[in-house]
């Protein structure tokens, strides 16, 4: 059985990639693959309305990220930030898929994805609206958006996020509460269909 990679292993590989080692990201994805599949499985649930299996979604996200050039301009320095990055790539892939599907059906079926780790399969917001709400939050406050993604897309705990962002747990809770309130208000306001901006 594959073990979950230690935070130090991930951080070391991220540093090596930031330093220009192209193979470090390959090794990182191989090391974290099992954990990433768990995240993808939780996000997809048991839906039959998607082309993606958890493994396919992880592989697509990894391919998307592997196409990036290594360099020191990358802000990902920790386990939490790495998982947030991959989860964001997964979300972008699912949003793109939902846009294509909606365009093909001229407003057809809505694709649902759970963004709350406690929901256990209950319906969640329209994926397109969620993607737009997160893009808006990122424009307003990138840190809050990243904290929200770590919690609701990666399923990280408060303590894990505090370590990843080098912030106190009370700050993480406060930022998460503000971010979650903003995302929920945008989703309520849009009725599940935010206007494209």
Number of strands: 0
Low-confidence stretches: 107-125, 193-197
Order of helices and strands: HHHHHHHH
Main beta-sheet annotation: none
* Rounded average pLDDT: 74
Percent range for helical residues? 55-70%
Structure annotation, total helices: 8
Which descriptor suits the 3D outline? globular
The Cα radius of gyration reads 17 Å
What would you call the quaternary organization?
A: single chain
Termini separation (Å)? Answer: 45 Å
Pairing-aware structural class of the strands and helices? mainly alpha
Tell me the strand percentage band: under 5%
Number of structural units classed as domains: 1
Keywords: Sigma factor, Transcription, Transcription regulation
Domain RNA polymerase sigma-70 ECF-like HTH: 9-189
InterPro entries: HTH_Sigma70_ECF-like, RNA_pol_sigma-70-like, RNA_pol_sigma70_ECF-like, RNA_pol_sigma_r2, RNA_pol_sigma_r3/r4-like, WH-like_DNA-bd_sf
Family: Belongs to the sigma-70 factor family. ECF subfamily.
Describe this structure in words.
It holds the Pfam family Sigma70_ECF. Keywords: Sigma factor, Transcription, Transcription regulation. The protein is mainly alpha-helical and 197 residues long. It has one domain (7-190). Helix content is 66%, strand content 0%. The protein contains 8 helices and no strands. It has helices spanning 7-18, 22-44, 54-66, 79-105, 127-140, 142-152, 158-165, 169-190. Helix 4 packs across helix 6 (142-152) and helix 6 packs across helix 8. The longest helix has 27 residues, at 79-105. The radius of gyration is 17 Å and the shape is globular. The model is unreliable at 107-125 and 193-197 (pLDDT under 50).
